Amino acid sequence: MSQERSPQLQQAFERLLTRFGPQRWWPGDSPFEVMVGAVLVQNTSWKNVERALDNLRDAGLLAPRELYDLPQAELEELIRPAGYYRVKARRLRNLLAVLCERHGGSLDAMFSQDLADARAELLAIHGIGPETADAILLYAGKLPTFVVDSYTHRVLARHGWIGFEADYHQLQERIEEELPRDAALYNEYHALFVAVGKQFCRKVPLCAECPLAEMLPPGGPLEE
DNA sequence: TGCCAGGCCGGGT
DNA sequence: ACCCGGCATGGC
């Protein structure tokens, strides 16, 4: 019954936090900006997203109604630096339609539902997948859902904490069952996974200087 | 120069 | 169920 839970993820969190310090994610001045950024950053570097957000901010469009009223062609031009600008304009408008037409443009209204309901609502939007939905819920809504990304997957799998074949849901369950259900912790931890991933998982996988190197299984990182 | 980045969708087998 | 291509810009 009281099954013993190994504290590996908690230990990894401590190490990453010690090494990298608080990440203060998500960059953005308002929850709405965070929400927009979550769509724009899909498979894209944050640097490019910043340009797009700057354009929107300079145009005074970082508000639900203002952005939703903008013609799609103009939206496309403004977010162009973020890449995939035609798809993303469509995806943003799909999201804005739900936000504006179902919740009167109020993020608070959208996030005051049960987490499961809010998540389902986001996932039903064309162009919003699990990672984008969770990023919006956690970073814009402060709701406790863990954001899984490719770095998270690699780190956990290479340490043997989960199989490489694990899908998004399995990873999320595995992580959430081992950590206290705490939005601030999830927030920091996801950002730390990205930090360690960028530095150590890109070219040289989990090299000796990786703060998690000592937690690797005997024989080193597992291969895919 | 080529490859990649904080995904997601649709079509083919 | 699986695999794969499309989507696009900017940085290294």
Topology (elements, then pairings):
Layout: H1 8-20, H2 31-40, H3 46-58, H4 64-69, H5 72-79, H6 85-103, H7 107-111, H8 115-123, H9 130-140, H10 150-158, H11 168-178, H12 183-200
The structure holds a DNA duplex (13 and 12 nucleotides).
Biggest beta sheet attributes: none
Mean pLDDT: 94
Helix content class: 55-70%
Uncertain runs are none
Q: Please write the string of helix (H) and strand (E) elements.
A: HHHHHHHHHHHH
Strand tally, please?
0
Q: Report the radius of gyration as a whole number of Å.
A: 18 Å
Strand content: under 5%
How many domain units?
2
Helix-strand makeup class: mainly alpha
* CATH-defined superfamily of the largest domain: Hypothetical protein, domain 2
CATH topology (level 3) name of the largest domain: Endonuclease III, domain 1
Distinct helical segment count = 12
Q: What would you call the shape?
A: globular
How far do the termini sit from each other? 33 Å
